[in-house]
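Morning!

As promised:
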Amino acid sequence: MIEDRNVDVAVIGAGAAGLAAAAECADHGLETVVIDREELPGGILRQCIHNGFGLRYFHEELTGPEYADRVVERAAASGVKFQMNTTVSDVRREENGDFTLLLLSEQSGVTRVHARAVVLAMGCRERNRGNLAIPGGRPAGVFTAGCAQKLLNTEGMLPGKCAVIVGSGDIGLIMARRLRWSGVEVKAVVEIMPYASGLTRNVVQCLNDFNIPLYLEHSVVSINGRERVQSVDVAPLHDGIPILEQKFTINCDTVLFSVGLIPENELAARLGVELNPATGGALVDADYQTSVPGVFSGGNVLHVHDLVDFVSEEAARAGRAVIRYLEGATAAERNPVRAGANLKYVVPGYYARGRDTVFAFRPLGVWASAMLEAELDGRVIWKRRCSHVRPAEMLLAELSGQLLNAPGTLEFRLRPEQDEAAVEEA
Amino acid sequence: MMKKKELICISCPRGCHLTAERGEGSTGEWQISGNFCPRGAAYAIQELNDPRRIVTATVASDSRLLPRLPVRTDRPLPKRMIAPLLNRLYRLRVKIPVKSGEVLIDDVEKSGVRVIFSCNCKE
């Protein structure tokens, strides 16, 4: 006999996104369960022991565990139920519009949860060596930066003695400092782009403070070693092609990859949710509802955020939309929203007339100043000047429903006004 | 002859490129330019006179759930005190329960900086 449990809302993932959405639902009196593989709720925040979180959401600077404790306490106080150490192995939509989730756990074996709505909040996983197809041997000592972070910060295990970090994303930069502060040598950070992909302040306090060299427009062309990593070969890039004649070797026993995140959407695919190829996340409307009625998505599983504060805010909006859905509100209108010039994507992918909406974007380049514009059927209805634009930093636009007063296609674009170099020379 | 130093502000994600200048041999205040806001000037002067950083680390614990407990300084610590502090922290083994914000080390080398736990741990 498989044990069954009925709830109003099933939230998959107990990170910042899942907890924010769940707290909204439970506050409203909905029976809400959050399901997560880990033993403790809080998600990736638990392993991010550095500071820099919460300035926007809590108006003070917190470490990851402090931010996690606060949002877990808030969700628990709202009446959210936690089902930890549990993997959701399948989810499907029944004919009556409800959902059945198949769960696996060591304590209870296989169980089922029946829910009237589902929130996808599974977050991301890291791109790894396989995604980059880096040649060489298959020795031990190759980690993703987040995996090394978890080993070091929550288990107290050092990944090695001497490391090279591939990619200059913030996780890689933070790990460079963390390794140095743990007695591990960091030989270099290698980045294919002409600029660091993480925040400038992280380059200063995580690399410059320790005199760790940052090789821009360079690529790791080989990982060498049989049992354990012994070295990597690094070559400069010309038009994206490594110049092998100029390659050099760096001795190390550990290689960390900090080369981007991929929304973890296997369960969304099981549900038949339509995905947006530009984000890797679900295509959602102004209510963060996916193409499958009753399935909502928010946080990093929807698109990769740079600040957890934005994850909490977005998922809370998704949670409030779940409440409206369960109260029988009609689905939000689906007028298409497009990412135009210099924007990689826009979320949500649809707007509804008369509805206040927060749009999120990822810029495609680096500019000191650029104008973000919204055009509805050939008419510019909104614009805002953005300074210090870079792909590492998400842009947000809050449009009032009064502006979104006509059906049609809404297009956002970024009009560069000033290059970064022009400002530095001035 | 002016003495000139270049810095990058770490007060916020903007990362202003700062220039600090003062007369050669002078011990007076540095003149700061390139900052977008007053925090930049304050950061530059602090950085030139007495560089400090927030320190985050972990300590061993007897908890089953959290064998390493995260800790941090409650304010930036003079850079020269960071390595000795880390050495001290890595030799500790703390007993639970602990509460977030609870003080682990009250006054690091008479700097007035405290080390506090940055998470709750009951079991």
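The CA atoms of residues 191 and 216 of chain A lie 5 Å apart.

Hope this helps with the figure draft.
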